[in-house]
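User: Sequence recovery, please. Input:
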């Protein structure tokens, strides 16, 4: 527990007292409460599953409280350790702070074929939330300017089984030049002074200063300007922060609108830790002024899918990444490993134009893939695998979009058992003698990784960089 009257910066407290007036005492008292913890269960990964049963298992609670503004999201207590569950590695859920889930719910992911940009996407909580709502349709560009954070973003996209995501590592201004009036939805989760992190991360208190607030506000102005140039007619921008600073929140919006009269505010809302079950967030919905009459505010969703004419505006032709690859090796892998009824196999076989290669790696690109030449790409959709001498080796990402019914060979392990722990730690596991070749390793029927079986032993192909060392 943190002692708020000692630890919170005095200048911060004075400003919050001016802002909140009679609510100030309740706000301050909230810092004597434990941080709120929550998970968001993937709708894509759990389709057809008993969500209540899964939520109880993940949170360790018979009837966990739901996050009211986000479907499939639940609170858990400090006694639980969901990050140590094998189902976390399988991408069944994402550990995400509850109020951070709010901005995506007002982004308006309400139609198929949308082109969406998450401008400041790492570590990937909001990106994977958007991808979940898009259900593998359309295009989601997730950008992160810092390379190491872009790597983490890419790993989380992979873990959650998101197949329509283009992960890029670019300066927002470079993207703005590349994608004029292109995206139907844009999320600007702006780097901020982090005042909504004080209870969850006491280090954020030490990093706070009035000077940092001003620096963040300047950067946020640039991000909004970049985003506005990339918004297609009929689209919307959601600007959000995890701070309470008016300079970074309402002030940033007012400043943007003053300089961009073609845009209007459709709604804004702030979640405080004393009024909502979360740590704190701000979200504002921006639309072009001509589109405002058809846009819902923060409490609702957009009125409907973007028209085809608006979606095509500013588009790019899919090109620039496709090279020759060994079709015979890929076809042999598909025929030996994936059942004919597998949706993934059918897509690969029927959408050859979406197959693009980078060196020896093969990707299934999103259906709405733009020209990616010259961009710093971390992930170009679903990585299918790698061509090696005389064989095609499936990638870890492919395992996370498959289930037992998709493959000929699946070893479905108890998510609480020793064998899945051994597998996630990089050890070999045993199998029946009749299983040979590539096999999907599942945890509780959720695809988790690959193994190669021979003589009743499965050689472990779980990536070395993410192998486990400890379980609860």
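Assistant: Recovered sequence (472 residues):
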């Amino acid at each position: 527990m943190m002692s708020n009257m000692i630890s919170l910066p005095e200048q911060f407290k004075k400003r919050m007292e001016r802002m909140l007036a009679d609510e100030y005492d309740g706000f301050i008292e909230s810092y004597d409460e434990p941080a709120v913890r929550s998970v968001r269960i993937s709708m894509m990964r759990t389709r057809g599953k008993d969500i209540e049963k899964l939520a109880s298992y993940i949170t360790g609670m018979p009837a966990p409280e739901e996050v009211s503004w986000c479907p499939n999201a639940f609170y858990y207590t400090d006694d639980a350790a969901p990050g140590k569950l094998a189902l976390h590695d399988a991408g069944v859920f994402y550990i995400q702070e509850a109020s951070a889930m709010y901005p995506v719910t007002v982004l308006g992911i309400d139609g198929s074929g949308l082109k969406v940009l998450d401008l400041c996407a790492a570590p990937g909580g909001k990106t994977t939330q958007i991808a979940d709502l898009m259900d593998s349709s359309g295009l989601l560009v997730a950008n992160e300017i810092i390379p190491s954070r872009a790597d983490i973003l890419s790993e989380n996209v992979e873990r959650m089984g998101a197949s329509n995501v283009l992960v890029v590592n670019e300066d927002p201004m470079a993207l703005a030049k590349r994608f004029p009036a292109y995206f139907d939805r844009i999320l600007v989760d702006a780097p901020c002074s982090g005042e909504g992190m004080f209870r969850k991360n006491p280090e954020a208190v030490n990093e706070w200063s009035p000077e940092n607030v001003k620096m963040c506000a300047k950067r946020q102005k640039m991000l909004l300007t970049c985003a506005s140039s990339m918004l297609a007619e009929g689209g919307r921008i959601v600007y959000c922060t995890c701070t309470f600073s008016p300079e970074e929140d309402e002030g940033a919006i007012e400043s943007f609108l003053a300089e961009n009269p073609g845009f209007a505010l459709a709604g804004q809302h702030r979640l405080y830790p004393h009024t909502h079950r979360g740590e704190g967030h701000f979200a504002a919905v921006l639309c072009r002024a001509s589109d405002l009459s058809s846009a819902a505010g923060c409490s609702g969703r957009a009125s409907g899918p973007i028209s085809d004419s608006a979606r095509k505006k500013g588009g790019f032709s899919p090109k620039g990444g496709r090279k020759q690859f060994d079709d015979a090796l890929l076809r042999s892998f598909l025929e030996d490993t994936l059942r004919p009824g597998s949706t993934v196999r059918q897509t690969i076989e029927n959408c050859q134009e979406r197959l693009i290669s980078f060196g020896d790696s093969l990707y299934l690109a999103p259906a709405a893939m733009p020209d990616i030449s010259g961009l710093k790409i971390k992930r170009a959709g679903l990585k299918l695998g790698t061509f090696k001498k005389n064989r095609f080796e499936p990638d870890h990402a492919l395992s996370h979009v498959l289930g037992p019914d998709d493959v000929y060979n699946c070893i479905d392990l108890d998510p609480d058992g020793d064998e899945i722990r051994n597998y996630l730690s990089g050890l070999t596991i045993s199998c029946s003698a009749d299983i040979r070749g590539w096999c999907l390793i599942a945890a509780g029927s959720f695809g988790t990784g690959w193994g190669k079986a021979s003589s009743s032993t499965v050689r472990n192909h779980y990536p070395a960089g993410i192998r486990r060392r400890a379980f609860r």
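DSSP finds 17 helices and 20 strands in the chain.
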